[in-house]
Amino acid sequence: MGGDLEWGTWGTIPKLVRDAAERYARREAVVDGRTRVTYAELGERVERAAAACMAAGVERGDRVAVWAPNTLDWIVAALGAVGAGAVLVPLNTRFKGTEAAYVLQRSRAKLLFITGTFLGTSYVASLRRAEVPLPHLEQVVVLADSAPEDYRTWKDFLAGGDAIGAEAVRARANSVTAEDPSDIIFTSGTTGRPKGAVITHAQTLRCYDLWSELAGLCEGDRYLIVNPFFHTFGYKAGVIACLTRGATMVPQPVFNVDTVLANIAAERISVLPGPPTLHQSLLDHPARDRHDLGALRLVVTGAAVVPLRLVERLRTELNIATVLTAYGLSEASGIVTMCRRGDDPAVIATTSGRAIPGTEVAVLAEAGEPGEILVRGHHVMQGYFEDPQATAGAITEDGWLRTGDVGILDDAGNLRITDRIKDMFIVGGFNAYPAEIEQLLCLHPDIADVAVIGVPDARLGEVGKAYAVRRRDSTLTADDLIAWSRREMANYKVPRQVEFVGELPRNASGKVVKTELRARHSA
């Protein structure tokens, strides 16, 4: 299975869903708490949701948003909307009402699926409080048993589609083309207002058929999806990838390591992608040995920094056969480079692998030196939604995407991410890359997690400040860590300040929110 032939056969996500429902009909598709549905049942639920979208007035090309955590309902609502020809706009579950309203307004979403209460927050109340005019938003469907007067419940919404015949639903799905946009993924907004990367059905299918092939995902795998669905890593490397191979999806709404351990053991989870922090907290959990993690065979991780020791520990302590690292960004369909099964452990630990088939990666620097990463190929977005100026700033005339990330390419084409351009700081004339310093600091046996920012310095212009999380029972001091750093790294890289914290602020994608650390330092 896999390769160009397969994604070309599907053409669109609705056709992939239908194919999976037929091909893997009796296999378990989704496990959500006590609810278990087969692929045949998932196909029926998605078609019913598509009918309901059509009954609600959704036309081809309309934007439909989902603001909810990882659940079966999210999968059904999203795939149903796409089956009705809509363009999916996933909303970050960490958004406040005003942030969500901005994306709804910017995308002119016609329909919104919203969770009831999640993590103690009423999303409906949060959206109402925003008081942002949303003239294009015609309906709000609450994925719960009750809803305010002018909103609809999920059950009521689905019943509305019963008058639409199966043939009409199939005809609508068949009218969708491979070149139509399948979704608009709004960037996390860490560099300003979120911008929406437009990705097509063909791009989505080609990328995640390739991802599944390179990762070795196969029928019968049981995949714990902790990465949020609003993020490409959760929705596409999760839901879409599972549909291509007939793997079982086990969505987890909140990242909680106790729940992760319980799920891996109870559901015999074999596949666990996620940010390095997920795997690190799993390895360090005091109750780890009381859970049977023996079914785990595949871990895929990716971030600016993957601690060198992490890959080794996953292989030796958990006996995980395949540990792979990857690199991607929303503007390139979420995937740019990936390690290959059988790669040397050192390559997996220190790089994000090589360009996926059919794409090019370049670095604006001399060979072996760090520079901005450029990407060109089938996965580069169509552009930012209705923003030609930002698109022109991101994609060159000859099709290269400027990623804003800094990296080094080795002779074999393996890419090592060293940082975000905006995170770099200059110490006495030397370029200091926080990700590189963080990777070195992670080698200290008492450091569990760390983030580095540049802070003003009267003599050197800027210097590094480390926010560090100690391992349990450690008595490490700031002076100890600075002295250790002086022995382990070039002087300009050594953090001049260290602040110990209980945990680092992270967004739902697992990235450290450095704006919060900078604000904390300035306060």
Tags for this entry?
523 residues, alpha/beta, Rossmann fold, GMP Synthetase, Chain A, domain 3, 3 domains, 5-stranded parallel beta sheet, 4-stranded mixed beta sheet, 27 strands, globular
| Reported CATH architecture of the largest domain | 3-Layer(aba) Sandwich
Strand order of the largest sheet: 4-3-5-8-9
Helix content class: 25-40%
Low-confidence regions:
none
Compute the number of structural domains.
Answer: 3
Instruction: Find the CATH topology of the largest domain.
Output: Rossmann fold
Question: What is the topological layout?
Answer:
Layout: H1 4-10, H2 13-23, E1 28-32, E2 35-38, H3 39-55, E3 63-67, H4 72-83, E4 87-90, H5 97-107, E5 111-114, E6 117-118, E7 121-122, H6 123-130, E8 139-142, E9 152-153, H7 154-159, H8 166-175, E10 181-186, E11 196-200, H9 201-215, E12 222-225, H10 232-245, E13 248-251, H11 257-266, H12 276-284, E14 298-301, H13 308-317, E15 322-327, E16 337-338, H14 345-350, E17 354-355, E18 359-364, E19 371-377, E20 383-384, H15 388-394, E21 401-409, E22 415-420, E23 425-427, E24 430-432, H16 434-441, E25 447-457, E26 461-470, H17 478-488, E27 497-500, H18 514-522
Parallel strand pairs: 3-4, 3-5, 5-8, 8-9, 12-13, 14-15, 26-27
Antiparallel strand pairs: 1-2, 6-7, 10-11, 11-20, 15-16, 16-17, 18-19, 19-21, 21-22, 23-24, 25-26
